[in-house]
Write a structure and sequence with these properties.
alpha+beta; 3-stranded antiparallel β-sheet; 20% helix; elongated; single chain; 8 strands
Length: 104
């Protein structure tokens, strides 16, 4: 088999990595997004809010940003634990609506 045909065959054949066949189709991408990512909005009360989800672990990563400002705005942080994520503002009087993304 010449090099051109080998290349065509390798492009057509899905590559297997970690139990997932690449390239991913739309259905695979949707399933992965639902499996590994949570996107929610929470209301801070006196600078903090908690999200409860059994998929969250201490190794999860959380990202937060203000959606609607209220009170004295602070810098946001996310702490993930076993089954929960705590969103905290550096201002105890931050009562903003916050967008949160958790990568499990």
């Amino acid at each position: 088999m010449d090099e051109e045909n080998k290349e065509k065959l390798s492009i057509q054949r899905p590559k297997q990595r970690g139990g997932i066949a690449f390239p991913l189709d739309h259905e695979d991408i949707s399933a992965l997004k639902q499996s590994f990512i949570a996107a929610v909005q929470v209301q801070l009360v006196n600078g903090s809010a908690t999200i409860y989800d059994s998929k969250i672990f201490p190794t999860s990563v959380g990202i937060a940003s203000h959606a609607v400002f209220s009170g004295t705005i602070g810098v946001l942080s996310v702490l993930c634990g076993n089954g929960y994520a705590v969103i905290t503002s550096s201002s105890g009087s931050d009562n903003s609506l916050v967008n949160v993304l958790i990568i499990y």
